[in-house]
Amino acid sequence: MQVAGLEPDTLGLSGDRIADVDLYGAVKLWPYEHYAAWAEADPFYILSNGHRQVVCARYEDTRTVLQDYARFTSTKQPYPGTQGFYFFNSMPTVTDSDPPEHSRRRRLMAPAFSPRALKALEAKIIKTVDDVLDAAQAKGAAIDAVDDIGTPIAVRTLLGHVCNLDEQDWSIFTGLVDAQRAAFNVLSGDTNAKQAYEAAWETTRAFCDRIIADRRVHPREDDLVTTLVNSHDVDGKITTEEMFATLFILYAAGIGGLTVFPAWTLWRLGRHHDQMALLRANPELLEGAMSESLRTDPSSYASIRYAVEDCTISGIDVQKGMPVHTLSASGNFDATRFPDPLKWDITRGTDWRALTSFGHGVHQCIGNGLVRMTTRITLAKTLERFPNLRLADPDFRPEVVGVLKQRAPKSIPLLVD
Amino acid sequence: MVEVAFTSAQGDVQKVEVDAGATLLDAARNGGVTGIVGDCGGFCNCATCHVYVDERWYARLPAVEEHEDAMLDGTVCDRLPTSRLSCQVILTSELDGLSVTLPEFQSL
Q: With the C-alpha atoms ordered B54, A118, A287, A293, is the resulting torsion angle positive or negative?
């Protein structure tokens, strides 16, 4: 199948496979029809700063690229027109590396997100959700799924419970996330918000300096920062930059997913009254509602890799160093796997593991278990607390924000009276 | 072919045959064995494909590598000396007849 919007190719390579689309602009705002069309399409090129970049959107193509780190590296390459993806300042992060470095860095974070750790967190998260919903209810009839539910639960869960940070320091990381979103929302990276981002980065870096120094003097049990410090100081397993990078990733990258999942699901339930009624009548369909929300509106809808060598993907030529965008959410609209993919249906019985919504391969989101548990608790308690919950505007379409790879609703106004 | 016996936490035994080269997690999935989750798809990232290898077989398995060792510390049910993550056990003809027991839980 040929991609809609393709123009004749004048540059050689693989013929007429350049699509004139803005993956991180118009597509990001309302991607669903694109997903459905591209789920059946061969890989194609887009242009950024005049340079070709490959896009894979089919289920099998995205999984192939994400899984094959030997051919498609996560390490950022100096290719023109991808600077918008450099939101961790080229630090040696777990996300921007391949095994064995990736495995070594990931091991440092793994204990905080293990099944055992999640089990220990469950009661705290239940209490947090209750507290946040108390505050939301106290606001009156009008609340916001993002500002009053998703974000406060995410921040308290991640920064408070998982990271053991004092509440007075949370704004450092929420400030960094906001600055990242403003500065890294176009592929070229050309925005006016870089200065504010650099300032937020320096503030965060200074805080990490302080907390590392503190843990050296006052080590804590079951504390991630203490683990990192020991890995650096005692075992020599990580560099100083890796220690900072891991803290930045942990603190800043997780807030989005925790906020977005319940918010998008509440928006979907508000739009689809029949599905809301079905779920209220059959609470056991909550997992189905979550899987359907993950299918259509994952927090991370795209990823980027770089070709390690000249190669082809499903017939399209890829040059060494060329960026390959994997539009992973598009595969979730493959009609052979998810019939009538534009229909939002909580009874599909989709196993979330069949989706690529948390990534695929070694880079699968390390926090996915935390996000699923927190969202499950949040949705169940929100629906129970607010039996008349609905969208303030039944036809509301949220403004979509987030760093390049992310689709996050800025606001979802609800009525609960 | 390699035959593996999975014993559930309740004592039910299910035998599965797979081609050599498959992982123990593959065998469980192909055989529809419940009690093994494998959230991450087999990339040693989630600790939800935990098994207890029968003692008489444990020493015949390749050694636990560093990444698996770290992940095993996070299993919901206690790690025992014979614990392995099934995604990291590649089945060879020498392992024909392997017997493993599943923990009561893999995740919440």
A: negative
> Over the stretch A96-141, which tens digit does the pLDDT of each residue have?
899 998 998 888 888 889 999 999 999 999 999 999 999 999 999 9
Size of interface A-B (CB pairs under 8 A): 60
- Cα–Cα distance between A408 and A411 in angstroms, integer? 9
Contact of A319 with A307, CB cutoff 8 Å: yes
CA-based nearest residue to A184, from A261, A89, A56, A250: A89
Out of A111, A360, A368, closest to residue B74 by CB: A111
Q: What whole-number distance in Å separates Cα of residue B11 and Cα of residue B101?
A: 8
Tell me the residue type at A290.
Answer: M
* Partner B contacted by A114 (CB < 8 A): yes
Rg, Å, chain B Cα set:
12
Whether chain A has a CB inside 8 Å of the CB on B107: the answer is yes
Residue A352 has pLDDT above 50, yes or no: yes
- Nearest-5° Cα angle at B77, B73 to B80: 60
Q: What pLDDT score was predicted for residue A15?
A: 52
Joined tokens for residue A413: 């106004």
Q: Is A360 on the interface with B (CB under 8 A)?
A: yes
Query: Residues A412, A267: contact at Cβ < 8 Å?
Result: yes
**A268 and A115 Cβ atoms separated by less than 8 Å:** no
For A121, name the nearest residue in chain B, comparing CA atoms only: B108
Residue bearing tokens 């007849």: B97
Chain centre to alpha carbon of residue A351: 19
Which among A207, A234, A235 has a CA at the least distance from the CA of A104?
A235
Residue A8 above 50 pLDDT?
no
Say what the pTM is. 0.91
Contact between B39 and A111 using a beta-carbon 8 Å cutoff:
no
With a cut of 80, say whether residue A220 has pLDDT above it: yes
pLDDT given for residue A244 in this prediction: 82
Q: Which residues, including other chains, have CB under 8 Å from residue A391's CB and lie 6 or more apart?
A: A267, A270, A271, A412, A413, A414, A415
Task: From residue A290, give the alpha-carbon distance in Å to each of A265, A339, A380.
Answer: 7, 18, 11
Two tokens, residue A53: 């970049």
Contact B76 A116 (CB under 8 A): yes
Q: Is A361 on the interface with B (CB under 8 A)?
A: yes
Q: What is the DSSP letter of A68?
A: -
DSSP string computed for B6-32:
EE-TTS-EEEEEE-TT-BHHHHHHHTT
* Distance between A50 CA and the closest CA of chain B, angstroms: 37
Query: Do A92 and A242 touch, CB atoms closer than 8 A?
Result: yes
Task: Choose, out of A106, A108, A116, A237, the residue to mutate when testing the contact with B (most B CBs < 10 Å).
Answer: A116
